[in-house]
Write a structure and sequence with these properties.
The protein is built from 16 helices and 15 strands. It is α+β, with helices and mostly antiparallel strands. The protein folds into two domains: 156 residues, Methylamine Dehydrogenase, Chain H (7 Propeller), CATH 2.130.10; 302 residues, MetI-like (MetI-like fold), CATH 1.10.3720.10. It has a five-stranded antiparallel beta sheet. A four-stranded antiparallel beta sheet has the order 3-4-5-6, with no helix packed on it. It is a multi-pass membrane protein. This is ABC transporter permease subunit.
Length: 553
């Protein structure tokens, strides 16, 4: 017998409609706020990096009341030696810092020569760059305070170059002919033109970021004080005549290196643990196992970085061979022990795929760990004469205490709960009817999981991996405290690194507002933001497609 419907008063119905409308508006407002916040963040990053790509120019001075002090070029430009191998009739000038020479030869070819760091007093210099050929009567003028220089000739054609980037930044055609000489201001912001009859003209140089170029970020470059081109990140030194080096390659390699090693450690453990939890544990046991693992996700990464830098790194340095044997041999020994026990009939599948078999698994794991530990000692004595690090040094392999191994282990522990939780959710969302159908056709529980459940949840597992990778790319504190923070372009497991996120944490307090250094850091933050945003968005789309595909079961 059905109960009669309860009649609601018009006032209460109106209250419910207003309440529902208000809740919908609040939800819509919250979603819009999140979208606007992300858009505002991206626009801010884009706006702050946009000046880096602006062009330089030379314009006639408009402020006639401004007093500018010009310095004759001979006051700060002593004559440099002519590099051997160049035209002896060349006209040469020192660049600011007197570590490289700019010359124009008798054919009008402009080139940059670097002092050989191994033979600083010799005329044997290193040819770094060549610039477009000009007239044979071209003259040169170095700009104070930067690696920029100006070329000019009697026809009035003036060109502004920057030696580090190798680019021509601006060009100006003067009507003050014939042009005889140019003087530059003390700060390098103005130049004064003078022709043969004494007429003068003042130009203002607008060149806010001359030492930035997109190619400098990603290509090997030959810098002063070096013999060959390399990827270098170095933004400061103990001298004001320093040549800033903005290569993103060491930072990108450090970011990828940390993420790859962390995922190599976290991904198999997290996925296999999720498979065991979702497919073989009872619901009662799963109800407290999963929250316990997810609770580890809230553990502060700064504490993990502290443990990694002050405890784990020295421990691995003292017992490197043993640690590697534990990581590599334990899974192999565990598989071998299981195979032997299965073949002899001492262990059955039901004893390891159920909760009651967990004590047996733990005992076997302990045996495998002890065997791997002992094998590590034997292998170090047999292969490395009792000291693996000394053997590596003799083989030319550098070992740093805070390295990729330390970062991979500790950061893998930090991202493992994320991958575990999302993978377990994907496996649980697979309809149980698929597994039951496979078992009804004769498949064992393990075969049903591996051949039916896991392929079905592959999209969700992939999403978990993507989110874990995004978390690893953006990790800061563990890398800041346990990586050594050396910007090297090396994927070696035993050397340090510096990631984009850690670099932002280190150098942001040092960057001057609106400087090239400041804007390059903003650009690196933009790249990091876009990479993690794309990965997380892709993972969310994959998870949504998985839900749509299986919600009708």
């Amino acid at each position: 017998m059905t109960q009669p419907r309860r009649h609601l008063s018009p006032g209460y119905q109106r209250y419910r409609r207003i309440k529902d409308r208000l809740i919908r508006q609040l939800i819509r407002l919250a979603a819009t706020s999140v979208i606007l916040a992300l858009a505002s963040l991206f626009l801010f990053l884009f706006w702050e990096t946009l000046p880096l790509f602006g062009s330089a120019d030379m314009r006639e001075e408009s402020d006639t009341q401004q007093t500018v002090k010009f310095v004759p070029s001979s006051d700060f430009q002593p004559s440099p030696p002519i590099p051997s191998g160049s035209n002896l009739s060349a006209h040469a000038i020192w660049l600011y810092g007197q570590a490289s020479v700019i010359l124009v030869d008798s054919q009008g070819q402009i080139s940059q020569w670097l002092i050989n760091p191994l033979q600083p007093e010799s005329s044997e210099m290193i040819l770094a760059k060549q610039f477009p050929i000009q007239r044979t009567d071209t003259r040169l003028l170095a700009l104070p305070g930067s690696k920029g220089f100006i070329s000019y000739d009697p026809s009035g054609l003036i060109r502004l170059y920057h030696a580090t980037s190798g680019n021509m930044l601006a060009e100006y055609q003067s009507q003050l002919l014939p042009l005889e000489q140019i003087h530059v201001s003390e700060n390098g912001g103005h130049i004064q033109l003078q022709n043969t009859i004494g007429q003068q003209q003042t130009l203002q140089l607008h060149n806010p970021h001359p030492d930035f170029s997109w190619s400098l970020l990603w290509k090997p470059w030959l810098y002063e004080g070096h013999q060959q081109a390399d990827y270098i990140w170095q933004t400061s030194a103990n001298t004001d005549r320093f040549e800033a080096k903005y290569s993103f390659v060491p930072l990108s390699i450090g970011t990828l290196k940390a993420a790859v090693y962390a995922m190599m450690f976290a991904m198999p453990l997290a996925i296999l643990a999720a498979i065991y939890t979702a497919c073989f544990l009872s619901e009662r046991t799963r109800a407290w196992v999963k929250p316990a693992v997810e609770l580890a996700e809230a553990f502060p990464t700064v504490v993990l970085g502290f443990i990694a830098g002050l405890w784990l790194a020295p421990l691995l340095e003292q017992h490197l061979a043993t640690a590697l044997s534990l990581l590599l041999l334990t899974p192999l020994l565990l598989i071998l022990i299981h195979a032997l026990l299965y073949s002899t009939g001492l262990l059955k599948e039901s004893q390891t795929t159920q909760w009651s078999g967990l004590p047996r698994i733990l005992i076997l794991l302990l045996v495998a760990l002890l065997l791997a530990w002992q094998l590590g000692h034997w292998l170090e004595l047999w292969l490395f004469k009792g000291n693996m690090i000394e053997w590596m040094t003799t083989q030319g392999i550098d070992y740093q205490q805070r390295n990729g191994l330390v970062v991979g282990l500790m950061m893998g522990l930090a991202i493992m709960p994320v991958i575990f939780s999302l993978t377990e959710d994907a496996l649980i969302s697979v309809p149980d009817s698929l597994r039951q159908g496979a078992m009804a056709l004769g498949a064992s529980p393990w075969q049903a999981v591996i051949r039916v459940v896991v392929p079905t949840a592959a999209a969700g597992i992939f999403a978990a991996i993507m989110i874990g990778t995004g978390r690893a790319l953006g990790e800061t504190m563990i890398l800041l405290m346990a990586s050594g923070n050396s910007p090297v372009s090396d994927f070696s497991l035993f050397e340090g690194m510096r990631s984009l996120a850690a670099n932002l944490s280190i150098e942001t307090p040092e960057a001057m507002q609106s400087s090239t250094h400041y804007r390059v850091l903003i650009l690196s933050a933009t790249l990091l933001f876009l990479s993690t945003f794309i990965m997380n968005t892709l993972a969310a789309v994959v998870r949504e497609n998985l839900y749509r595909h299986y919600r009708h079961f």
